[in-house]
Each structure stands twice: as structure tokens, then as C-alpha cells.
Structure prediction request, 535 residues.
Amino acid sequence: MSPNTRRHLQSAAVIIGFFLFWEAACVLFHVKEIVLPRPSQILVTLWERAPAIWPHTVQTLYTTLVGFALGIVSGVLIGVLIGSSRLAYDVGYPLLVGFSSIPKVAVVPIFVLWFGAGTVPAVLTAMIMSLFPIVVNVATGLATTEPELEDVMKALRATKLDILFNVGLPRAMPYFFASLKVSVTLAFVGTVIAETVASNRGIGNLMMIASSSFDVPLVFAGLLVLALLGVGLYAIFSVIEGRVIGWARRKDDFAMG
Amino acid sequence: MSNARDEFVRLQQVTLSYGRGERVVHALGETNLTVGKGDFVALVGPSGCGKSTILKLVTGLLSATTGWVMVAGREVGAEPVRVGMAFQNPTLLPWLSIRDNVMLPLKIVPPFRQEYRAKRKTEFRDRADALLEQVGLKGFADKYPWQLSGGMLQRASLCRALIHDPQLLMLDEPFGALDQFTREELWAVLQDLWMTRRPTVLLVTHDLKEAGYLANRVCVMRARPGHIVEDRHVDLPRPRTIDMTYEPDFVSLTQRLRALIVSARADDPLPAATGEPA
Prediction:
């Protein structure tokens, strides 16, 4: 067995062990289903109610991805601006910090006021949730360009755009991808918050209704779906990251490919 | 040697100060320096004497407080002069292969930049490979910077500084971080590159042997404010060899340079306890 498979098997065993422990604890201590359902119950619920859960899942995934995509585009633009201009840095940073300190639950009613309940507030909430880490990381990445390298470029009479595209942005890529992995999970949080407060579709809404009718296994099934979606997207971005910025990890397979 | 009296770089009564009022720092006192076209001039001196400042003035990265900096007969920046630079830190881009790193100036500097897309897989690629071969990096073009040793990176960095056939080559302690033997090897490589391409070179270094081996002229500088106290010609035939650096003439030259720098350090109002070898 290669050390790598061994490592994967070990981590899988620990994760499965966690759920077995949960199952066993619920059985041993006679925990009621309404307090904490067993993992097996959650899975059964997920399976039996799949036709009902599925449209909500699609809705949440769709909302999150649209919001996340908007977050990436605006985050990169704002990050480039803040990272390359002193004035934009001085103005933009306090604004951003202030804005990101606002609890997003408080913003959702405003979006509802503007755009009505439904998909749009959820998209926007996902977007602003995922925005901040992207902006900060892109700006930091741009700011870490070595001054000597900048001198080399300036001595070649490179324009600001030349420096940005040849040095700044590639240098910021590892930071950007690190932020994407954080942001994509935050985007889910944003979507679910908005769906819980003001929507009649999506996993957030499903969980709201389920909990108000004390259908706790369904609530947990919703949580499981969210967790799976989050892990899935995280994994996808990790793979893209490895392909694009292998140089930052000094992987030999990057050099070969 | 190479007394092409065509002047290429001229600093006339140049001074440079930072800050204002009582906290003003005179980085460079009145400095005059003329470098002929295709000449090789080394700047030596204690740290903080404004050696690197002169390089930055000549490339236009800093502007003089007073005086004139002329390059190719006009004020610096007026004429698009092709400049190559290399530092102690090779500053190669880690996401590009060595070949792409070397080709970076071709992507930016006119007239190459207009043809970059068309020629990057043909003519420019061959040009980079030929240069890499000349510095002994044949077969490393497709490697990435982290796969190479410090000396190899510095060779690649020299290639990047020379690929666009610069009229002016600025070297700021390029071999400072290398071990003695690698350094001596690279001196020969640099001499070879200079003799085949004849750019005008300004070299900043702490190593007097390096200055004597490579340069046609060695300028000794003194700090606070920085100025040039001695300008010596090195009349040794080319190509020079490492053995020459052990001959009496060469040794007396470096001893003389050393004495000048030691006295410059002793006169320095700040204690010379920075631990940097003269």
C-alpha cells in the first residue's frame, strides 16, 4: 500500500468513525429524534424525501454559484484597484472593513425592500458574503511584488498594465485561490441566510419550514445537503488551484505538464 | 582599452536628497561621472555611499534633486534607451519557465514587443536558448526557477538583463550572495557577455577583486553625502583570468582601493560597526 492511499484510508476511517460514534451515542443514551436524529435516520430521510429536497438543492446551488461568480468578478476588480492605487487603498479599506462587519442578516431585509423576496436578495447576499476575502487576498497578493522586480520592469519602461498582467496578477493567484476556497463556503452561508429570511424556495427555506413543523430529521437532511455541496465546491476549486498555481507549491508534476 | 570617447552616460553636478527641512538626508553630494559608450565602470565604497542611487538615477528610477543626468546625449528618460538590470536577488518569476523568464523583456520593450506574439515560438525562443547556452544553462530552459541553484538563477537573471540587447546594463551586486567559486565562474561569463555584446555597464559591488577583474574603471565612493573620491583605470589586457588577480599589479591595485575605502569608513561620522566588509 502506498503511503498516499494509506493516508487517505486513515482520514476516511476517522470521518466514518465520527458518524458511527454519533450513531452509537444516540442509541446508547436514547437521544430523541427531535433533539438529535441519528445519521442513519438522516440518510433515510434524505433518500425518501429526495424528490422534495432536490428542487430546493438546485435552487440553492444555482443562487450560490451566481452570487459567487458575481463576488469573484467584483472582488477581483475591487482588489486590483485597492492593491494598485494608494488612494483607492486609503478610501476602500475602511469602507470594506466597515461593510463586512455588518451582519448580513441585517442586510437581507434591505435587499428584499429593493428587489422583493425571492432569488435576487439571495444572490446578492451570497455575493457580498464572498466578496471580502477575495478583495483582501487579491490586494495583498498585488502588494507583495518585490520592489526590485518592479525596478526591473520600470527600467524596461513597462506600463502599469504590463506590470499588472505580467507580475502582479500571477503573483496574486495563490492568494486568490486561497480566498476562493473560503469564499465559496461563505457564499452558501449567504444564500441560506437570505432563503431563511425571505424566500419560498431553497434549502434555507426548506429547513425553516421543517423546523417549524418539528421535522428535525429533515432539518438535518438539509444541513447534510449544504455540507456536501460545500465540500464538493471546495474540492473543485482545490483541483483547479493545483492545476493553475502548482508553481507556488513547487510540485514536480506541474513542471512536467 | 575601449577608450571609445563617445560618452554615453554623464552625471553633471548631480545631487540627491530625501526629506526636507531639518530631516533632509543628502544621499548624494555633488557628483560628476562620465561613462563612455561600451565602457565597463565599477562603483565601490562603504554601504550607504550612494552606489545604488547612481544606478537608479541613470535608469530614471530616481530623479536628481539638482544637476543633470544625461543618457545617450539627452536628459534621462527623454530618449527610449534599452536598459537591462540584475540584482543580488535574481527576482525571476516563479510561475514562468527559465526560458519565459529570460524572454520577459522581449514582451515589454519596443521594438520586440510588437513582434512578440509572432516570434515567441521561433526567433525569440532561439535567441533565449542561445543566450542561455552562452552562460552554461543549456538544457535548463524548460525548468522552473525553484529547480535551479542560486548560481544558475543568477546566470538566468543575467540573460534576462541582456536578451533585449540593452545599450545600458545595470548590475547591483549581482554576485553578492554566491560562493567564491561560483562567483569567479560568473565573472568570466559576464566578461564574455560584455566582450561579445559591448553594452555600457555600471556595476555596483563590495568585492574589490570583482571590480578590478571586470571593470575598465573603478570609482571609489565615500558616504554622507555620497560622492566619488577616486576614479582609477584598470589597464589589464582582456580577456582577463582569475590568475591575473594574484599578480602584484592587481594586488597593489586592490590594496590601494581597500585603503581608500577603509579611510572613507574611518571618516564616517557614524560608527562603522555595521559589520559589512569593505
Chain A has two domains: 1-31, 34-256.
